Amino acid sequence: MRQAELWQRQIIGAHHMLRLFLSGCLLLLAGFAAVPAVALEPSPAMHAPKLIEPALHLPRSDETGKIRVALTFDACMGEADQRILSVLVAENIPATIFVTARWLRHNPQTVAILRAHPEQFELENHGENHVPAVDVPMSIYGIATAGSRQAVEQEVAGGASAMQAAGLPAPNWFRGSTAKYDASAMDLIHTMGFRIAGYSVNGDGGSLLGAALAEKRISTARDGDVVLAHINQPTHAAGEGVARGILALKRRGVTLVRLSDVADMQDGTLTH
Ligand SMILES: [Zn+2]
User: Fold this and answer.
1) Pairing of strands 266-269, 54-57
2) C-beta of residue 35 within 8 angstroms of C-beta of residue 28
3) Terminus of the chain with fewer CB atoms < 10 Å: N or C?
4) Phi, psi (degrees; rounded to nearest 5) at 85
């Protein structure tokens, strides 16, 4: 073999090796990229569950012209929004507040204020670690779900026991992180003795709305509405609008109630 021919063969061989190496790298990269997706999204074989976002309404008020609305707040984690809490306390407005074990641990002073007004504030269960109560591993708004029946049970029971450990009455209602569930997790939560707290007005868009829009959504609530807003994001603009919206409801003469004040709550499913 002539020297030139030998070099050509070596060069072709080196190119081939390089291509093999590069395609190997790509496969490896693809493998890494697939890891979180495999961990969080159900594979088609697992049959991704249909997620349910339950609605909740108060029955229509008996008296003509009387408008009755329930204010419910989620305290997911983080701090307490004093803009909202101070309005509730100053105006003696009743509210139902869903707390996680994490939020209880980080906000002992606010918990003391809530406990000091038991006739005004009803505290209910928002879970232990704020993981969505879905018993299949997947991701909702980027939050990994509980992922198994046992983990859903732990989320619900852990939230309830943290409340009792903080000296609060045993909760009757559960509202999971993201307010979405699958049917089997809902059955489990009911079996554990909790009612599932849906809502009918998304008051603050997960605390991400601007103040004006949050104020409008809350101030225009209608008879029978259950408003959901957040009381744990003091740095978000939404909270300012929530506080103004509550005051506007009061000015309209709306009767504000807690979930425990109403015997016959009406469940349904929200459609988007
Ligand atoms: Zn939450």
Assistant:
1) antiparallel
2) no
3) C
4) -60, -40
- Distance of CA 76 from the midpoint of ligand 1 (Å): 4
> Does position 45 have pLDDT exceeding 70, yes or no?
no
Which pLDDT score, from 0 to 100, does residue 5 have?
52
Residues, Cβ < 5 Å to ion ligand 1: 74, 76, 177
Bridge partners (DSSP) listed for residue 269: 54
Q: Where are the beta strands (DSSP E) in the chain?
A: 54-57, 68-75, 95-99, 121-125, 139-140, 143-144, 173-174, 195-196, 201-202, 226-230, 255-257, 266-269
> In this predicted structure, what is the pLDDT of residue 54?
96
CA of 54 to the centre of ligand 1 (A): 15
Check whether 180 has a pLDDT greater than 80: yes
Ligand 1 mean position, distance from CA 130 (Å): 6
Mention every residue, 6+ apart, whose C-beta is less than 8 A from residue 142: none
Distance CA(17)–CA(31), nearest Å, equals: 21
* pTM for this prediction: 0.82
Distances in Å between the Cα of 149 and the Cα atoms of 134, 136, 137, 181, 189 are: 8, 8, 10, 12, 10
Quote the ligand 1 centre to 248 CA distance (angstroms): 25
Contact 138, 145 (CB under 8 A): yes
Closest residue by Cα to residue 54 from 166, 206, 182: 182
How many angstroms separate the alpha carbon of residue 261 from the centre of ligand 1?
Answer: 23
What's the 184 CA to ligand 1 centre distance in angstroms?
21
